[in-house]
Amino acid sequence: MLSVKNLSVQFPTDDGMVAALNGMDLQLHRGETVGLVGESGSGKSVTSQAIMGLFKETRAKISGEITFEGTDLLALSEDRMRTFRGKKIGMIFQDPLSAMHPFYTVGSQIAEAYRVHNKVSRKAAKQVAIDMLARVGIPDPKKRVDNYPHEFSGGMRQRAMIAMALVCEPELLIADEPTTALDVTVQAQILDLISELQAETNSAVIFVTHDLGVVAQLCQRVVVMYGGQCVEQASVREIFTAPSHPYTRGLMASMPHLSGEDDRLTPIPGSPPALLDLPSGCIFADRCEFAALVPDNRCQNERPQLLVTGEHAARCHGHEMSLLPKTIKVGA
Amino acid sequence: MTATASTPTTAKPVATGRSLLATAWMRIRRSRIAMASLAVVVGMVLFAILAPVLVAIEGQDPNTTNTTPEVLDNFYTPGLPLPQYMYPSAEHWLGVEPGLGRDLFARLAYGARVSLVIALLATLVSVVLGTILGAAAGYFGGKVDMVISRIMDLFLAFPHLLLVLSIAPILQSRLAGTALGSGSFVPIASLVIVLGFFGWAYLARVVRGQVLTIRQQEFIDAAQSYGTSHRSMIFKQVIPNVTGVVLVYATMMIPTNITAEAALSFLGVGVKDPTPSWGQMLNAAQAGNWYLSDPWFLAVPSIALIITVLAFNLLGDALRDALDPKSSR
Questions:
Q1: Which CATH number fits domain A2-225: 3.40.50.300, 3.40.50.880, 3.90.226.10, 1.10.760.10?
Q2: Residue B199 buriedness (CB in 10 A; 0-12 / 13-18 / 19+)
Q3: I need a labelling partner for B231 at 20 to 30 A (CA). Which of A78, A118, B134, B151 fits?
Q4: pLDDT tens per residue across span B224-265
């Protein structure tokens, strides 16, 4: 239903073009939940915002292809794009307090989101908002509908935000780190809520997060991002048991385990790439401990392609040439 | 916006939310200066609105002349009110004016109407123009911003007073032939237009700056993500967030416009006799050199002007403090 191909987004700055996305690929089917993981600055949010069309042409250079049910979203005019936002594609933001307007009641914001796409009276829209609040599990929605965002607790705010994003029943929901600002118990409730609502409406969800635990709980498929590229794409099971890309292996190795065999976590050496000046070879090469295994300095000189084998895809010369060790233990 | 959450000294520490304006109102109620200036402003507005009633109670009329020798001296200084008519009395609450002997209280009251109407309408024009254009410039950015900003610069760089001095008479003579040309409509309308259209640029610049930071906030992205149109983006999402700034600025702009009206009328390009305004009264006091022999005649409109302008300015200050989310007072 959604297909992102070779998407590049560049932002002009005083120091030159910042390449936030460098050929991002992403496929999504109806009713599916895909986790978009990666460290800060890997382009997770840029990808979701590009799908929403939230970048102005004057501020960002976008190339590539975003197809949503056969429509090329990048070619759409602002007016046509607006008919997609909210109605076809909804978005949940990380911090619901700053994502809700401080001057309007929660109910009026949900009603407003509904009225953008549905010609109904204010009263009818308010009823929709009340129903929606009830659906996302806000107690006493008739009263709560007239509260301001700051009168809600963090978890309730995120529920309200979800209500706002889902009020028009979009077919695709982009959740941009919706649980990062919440504590763990509330986080679990919100995750349950999202998967419940998804089951009800059969919508697809892109779940942007850097929390692999959340991914394991919620998603069917995982897209791992690094340096504005998809470096690996696979089912949750495969990613956790048999990661191909050295970066994914590093991520798995750097996660704490409940078994507590090791006291120390294993970090990935080095730091994320500078997006101003990307290497011509593999973006991960200078942090990759397997780069030396690949002959002819290919990792330094040649950007690897995304190699798709069945449901599993990875972007690595070493993987392509089957030079990587089978074990997933990485580092010292 | 944590403004509403950061008021620790409320009577009831219940977690009921207060809107920004409700918080501001609470702060104003606690400040004695703010309440006093608000009372003066409200009083002045009531004074203007109730002018016909008050003058009827006094039993006078702003246009009736009393030039009889019983009222005005015609020997030493012809036209000067005799002492019992010059100063406040039961019959003429503020005395009569020299020259024509019209009742001073009646003219002050009717003059307040004209002065306040001009100042308020001109402020309204400036605020509407400044807010919408400033918000549009800040919100759209790019070319729209460039065009609007250059127009702002143009208006700010213009020699304001000179332009006003030259435009007011032109407008007056242009409108004079039309159906609107009779009565006091022309001078009032031309002052509103001139003051209004040349006061918006500064506010627009302030609003633009505010909107530039508001645009970065997440709720703007969120509103965009559910498909809000540009129009409701500007009017429903952006502009409510600049209300505080605009309100403060408008309160500060009113006294500026009152003095500007007074100055222009004083210079003879604004409101003209027989229509009373405070500026016109100042002009009359100056024109016949009456301020030398009858300083009271000059003092009455001056004091009214000073009190009103001071009250509006203090109210503006108090509003700014009250609407500032960072102030803890």
A1: 3.40.50.300
A2: buried
A3: B151
A4: 888 888 888 899 889 988 988 898 899 989 999 999 888 888
